[in-house]
Amino acid sequence: MRPQSVRTRITELFGIRHPILCGGLMWLADANYAAAAANAGCLGFMTAKTFPDPGRWKEELEKAKALAGGNPLGVNLYISQRPEENAMLTGHADLALQAGVHSFETAAMPPADLVRQLKEGGAKVIHKVASVRHAVSAATKLDIDAVSVVGMECGGHPGLNMVGNMVQGVLAALRVDIPVVIGGGIGHGRQLAGALAFGAEGVVLGTRLLVADEVWSHDAVKERVVQADETSSRLVLASMRNTYRVIDNETARAVAELEAAGVKDYETYREHVRGTLQKEAYEDGDPEKGLLSMGQSAVFADRIEPLGDIIDRMVDEMDEAMGRLQGLRVAHEAAAE
Ligand SMILES: Cc1cc2nc3c(=O)[nH]c(=O)nc-3n(C[C@H](O)[C@H](O)[C@H](O)COP(=O)(O)O)c2cc1C
């Protein structure tokens, strides 16, 4: 693990060494992932929805604790547009609090009740949104500690506005008073230095970590990410107002064809978009199957390696970038000569 090289409101808030959050990854963000992040000096969020059975969830939390050596762990609570899918979240949040998890990443629909529950349990909450407007709204209406804002480059759900981080990253930090984390397209330490220069207090990663050894998916899926470049993802389901950035594979193309044909009936899409198809793809090593979230930063994921090595590399790159900027500065006396 690299020594701490920057201190931000995010490193202080979560008690972590580096200003890097390892975001929730449906099906993939388990105890091994969160513990690997913790041991690399970051905060990793286990996805509660990946473990619907409460007993199984409790086991996973205990496993993460045992592996993380006392370093902080996080839990992702993704709030779905379909309320029946959120019923489990209250109980899962309580189990996480009881297990000693005090850092939560909520995402998508505004979680006022859930935030209250977490705050009463003494937790820190960062809420993730895909637009500056939603970030401002969350920061003013919810009792959250920080907000993360993902740009259109991101894997998974980039929202509807399609604004990239070059604009949105700066704007978010200008408009929001609480600490801001930016995500989407980040996979190199130079971007981490850039995010701090933009006024953010840290970054959230997803795609870049899909090639980590500790992520359980089949190597064939990881290899697909290694082979991918910044053009290898595709946006689908914008017509359903549920835009998704995924691997440009057979399923994504089938969905895109239905959209191009003007199909509006969700049932027609169901066989392609069901989440269990993603799980099967990760298990079987078939990257053509399912809508598999992946963003533009796949271009930086150039090998399968331990998560800690990915983070160390990013921290080194960030240090180098900050050193370069320092070297470019002109002292006033020198400038006056
Ligand atoms: C495979 C995959 C699964 C994801 N699943 C979730 C999820 O369950 N909940 C969530 O809040 N975000 C999820 N995300 C989003 C990430 O947590 C993170 O915000 C995003 O990936 C950052 O953008 P990047 O992919 O460009 O790094 C997922 C992303 C990927 C790539």
From TrEMBL:
Q: Which residues form a coiled coil?
A: none
Which CDD domains does the protein's record reference?
NPD_like
Q: Which UniProt keywords apply?
A: Flavoprotein, FMN, Monooxygenase, Oxidoreductase
KW Metal-binding (keyword) present: no
Which molecular-function annotations from GO does this UniProt entry contain?
nitronate monooxygenase activity
Classification via InterPro entries? Aldolase_TIM, NMO
SUPFAM superfamilies referenced in this protein's UniProt entry, alphabetically: Inosine monophosphate dehydrogenase (IMPDH)
Do you know which Pfam families this protein is assigned to?
NMO
Instruction: Work out whether the entry's keyword set contains Iron.
Output: no
Name used for this protein in its record = Nitronate monooxygenase
Q: Which organism is it from?
A: Nisaea acidiphila
